[in-house]
Amino acid sequence: MIEAFYLGLYLLILSPLLIYMGWDDGMIIFWVLLALSVPGLYAMVKGAPFLPTTRKRVKQMIKIAKIKEGQKVYDLGCGDGRIVFAAAKEGATAVGLELSIPVYIWAKVKALFYPKVTIKYRDFWTQNYQDADIIFCFLLVQTMEKLEKDIWPTLKPGCKVISNSFRLPSIKPTYDKDGIRVYTK
Ligand SMILES: C[S@@+](CC[C@H](N)C(=O)[O-])C[C@H]1O[C@@H](n2cnc3c(N)ncnc32)[C@H](O)[C@@H]1O
Questions:
Q1: Is CATH 3.40.50.150 the right assignment for the domain spanning 55-184?
Q2: For labelling, which of 21, 47, 103, 119 has a CA lying 20 to 30 Å from the CA of 111?
């Protein structure tokens, strides 16, 4: 994923050269937009596309999470940050990880008003989750398979993974209703 970030940066750095070469404005704008989209496109293919959880479902997931003051919460691919902001309102210290630049910037700006929220421009596969009490996710089938293989074994006992829509392939949920699944380590 970080390679995608550098590819985007590289394309962006090339822009002045294209102006020098006489590319017209439309092509330059297209090029800059392409450069900014590369990490998001990579995240879309390798993780999940940006599709926000509905407000109604955010409320349900937060209710089910039963967040206690000071708990550490992560959202894997936080999008516009709606879940981490809702979790912070319940007293959590919340971290949102995101690679798609437009939504990352949007969440980062909103986080200025939420002292308990940190929004990181980071590939969620590279984060350490040993301090996580609750992990929220809304990903894809193949991403959940990788999550079970790579992240689940690193979680501390009692940590809850709360997934919108998708299942961990071979772990039995402790809650499973209306498309929301909770897995307790
Ligand atoms: C379906 S959206 C969910 C957004 C948010 N969690 C919500 O429920 O509203 C998935 C998000 O994960 C992000 N994403 C996918 N792979 C990622 C990765 N490896 N690291 C960080 N973000 C990633 C995408 O850019 C997208 O915004």
A1: yes
A2: 47
Q: Does the CB atom of residue 114 touch ligand 1 within 6 A?
A: no
Q: How far apart (Å, rounded) are the C-alpha atoms in residues 23 and 6?
A: 23
Task: Give 40-68 pLDDT, tens digit per residue.
Answer: 777 777 678 888 999 999 999 999 999 99
CA distance 70 to 65: 13
Of 37, 44, 98, the one to substitute when testing ligand 1's pocket (max ligand atoms within 8 A of C-beta) is 98
The residue nearest atom 6 of ligand 1, judged by CA position, is 78
Of 80, 85, 122, whose CA–CA distance to 103 is shortest? Answer: 80
Chain region(s) in the chain for CATH 3.40.50.150: 55-184
- pTM comes to 0.84
End-to-end CA distance of the chain: 27
- Can you say how many angstroms the Cα of residue 175 is from the centroid of all Cα atoms in its chain? 22
